[in-house]
Write the structure tokens for this entry.
Amino acid sequence: MENAEKTLEEIEALRKRALRAFYVCLAACLAAPPLTGLILGLLINISAGMLAGSLCVFAAVLFSVFYYRGQAAGFKAAYAEVFVKDILFKITGLIRYEPHAGFPYAEVMGFIEKGDSYRGSNYVEAVHQGAYFRCAQGISSTTISDSDGGSSTSVHFSGMIYMFPYPSGKKILCLRDRAGKFGLKLPFPEILSGNDAVDKRFKLYADDAGYAQRLLNSPPFAGFLGEVSAVIQNGLNIYVKSDCLYVLVNSSSHFKLLAPGIFTTVAAARAKVELQLGEMLAVTGIFAKYLLRKQ
């Protein structure tokens, strides 16, 4: 614990260094050009002062970009490799952590609309309570330009994606939160599960109505769905396909695991990351409890 706290202090020191660099760059951009121009204008002439001021603006901006980026890069690298990976994810039986990777769109294209932009981050591959899983954050959006030269962005999905191996053969089942905003149309009709609680919260789509109803009303899957629904109260979507079970949480309120802005302290960031980690372990634990040994 002492080593962990020391590491957190070191990362906080890097954040403060990046913050100081930001203020230095801001001061350089705001103060250096007019002062340089004023001094040379008084010593030589106004034209020389204006030219020097212009050149100083360029130099100040160039200095600021490279200096600040260098300081911020050290903070972000330490945050991802030490703070997230070595401290928080040890308890999950971590196999792989890639802060700038995610699920390839080819894997999630059946249930997430791509739009003109899809990207993933914070890819985690691990084992928890005997259950192998993969998860990552993802965001999909479309930007539309208007006739006035402006633009607007529509977000199709923003949140977490979890994947668990789950034998389903070629069967496909989709549960969508009725409060969600998924625009991607599915090639299956909406059906009822026969469970009032499930039908009240979710829209059910499946290529085999009988299979879907049997699965959702089986004790293991019903237990899994009930507990996951209690943990994730908004934006929950579940997909079964290609021998995999996907849990999607479509919520822009999800905390980012990547380094926060330099104005957020490491202590505050840690509290947010631990909330995200808590959800990750809860979802995986529920899968392990109901479905891991019931396959």
